[in-house]
Design brief:
The chain is α+β, with helices and mostly antiparallel strands and 182 residues long. The chain has six helices and five strands, in the order H-H-H-E-H-H-E-E-E-E-H. The chain has a domain at 30-137: Winged helix-like DNA-binding domain superfamily/Winged helix DNA-binding domain (Arc Repressor Mutant, subunit A, Orthogonal Bundle), CATH 1.10.10.10. The protein has helices at 30-33, 36-39, 43-55, 68-75, 81-92, 143-163; strands at 64-65, 96-100, 103-108, 111-113, 116-119. The protein is globular. The protein starts with 29 loop residues before the first helix and ends in a 19-residue tail after the last helix.
C-alpha cells in the first residue's frame, strides 16, 4: 500500500505561506564542481564562492552585496590579499560577475556600498544564465592550470574506481559505534 501524506503537512498560515518550510541550503551543481573553472579555484576562492551562494535566496542573484572587508570577516581571515585574489579568480573563471561596482562616495543608510555580485549559472534580473564558467580555460602552465589538471585527474581516478566497483560501500548500520575517549 503506498504511503500517505500526513494531513496538514502543507498547511498554509494566515499570510498564505507554508508553515512547514524546508531548511535552506547552499548547493553547487555537479556540472560546475566537475568543471575546469571550479577545479582551478584555490581554497580561499572556493570558500568565498560558498559564502556568495549562501547569500543567494532564489530572488536576489545579481544583488549579492559583499565587499572585501565583510568577506574577510565572514571567512575569518586577517589579510585582504588572498581574498582580493579570490574575487579576481572567481571573476576570471566566469563563476561570478560583478553587477555593480563599489560606491564609497554614495552613502546608503550611513554606510558606503560594497560591490554587488551575481552567480553566472543562475538567472540575473530575469535574463537567462550566462554560464561563463563553461568557456573557462586556464592559461597554460599557470597555477590555475596545474590546480585544475590535478583536480580533474583525481576526479577521473575516483570515477574509474567507482565504476569498477573498487571503492567499497560501508554499511554503517552494521558497524558498532566508536568508543568516545574522555
Amino acid at each position: 500500500m503506498p504511503s500517505r501524506r500526513k494531513r496538514g503537512r502543507n498547511k498554509v498560515n494566515p499570510t498564505g505561506r507554508n508553515e512547514n518550510t524546508t531548511k535552506r541550503f547552499a548547493g553547487i551543481p555537479h556540472e560546475i564542481l566537475k568543471s575546469a573553472a571550479y577545479r582551478a579555484l584555490d581554497p580561499v576562492a572556493r570558500a568565498l564562492l560558498i559564502e556568495l551562494i549562501m547569500m543567494e535566496n532564489g530572488r536576489n542573484n545579481g544583488s549579492l552585496w559583499l565587499g572585501v572587508k565583510d568577506a574577510i570577516d565572514r571567512l575569518g581571515m586577517a589579510d585582504a590579499r588572498p581574498l582580493i585574489k579570490a574575487f579576481d579568480l572567481l571573476q576570471a573563471t566566469g563563476l561570478i560577475v560583478m553587477t555593480k561596482d563599489a560606491h564609497f562616495s554614495v552613502k546608503a543608510a550611513e554606510t558606503s556600498r560594497a560591490r554587488c555580485w551575481g552567480l553566472t549559472w543562475l538567472s540575473i534580473d530575469g535574463k537567462p544564465p550566462k554560464n561563463s564558467w563553461q568557456d573557462y580555460l586556464p592559461a597554460p602552465k599557470s597555477r590555475e592550470s596545474k590546480r585544475a589538471e590535478k583536480g580533474l585527474r583525481a576526479m577521473s581516478r575516483y570515477c574509474k574506481q567507482l565504476a569498477a566497483n573498487k571503492i567499497p560501500i560501508v554499511d554503517f548500520t552494521a558497524t558498532p559505534p566508536l568508543p568516545i575517549e574522555k
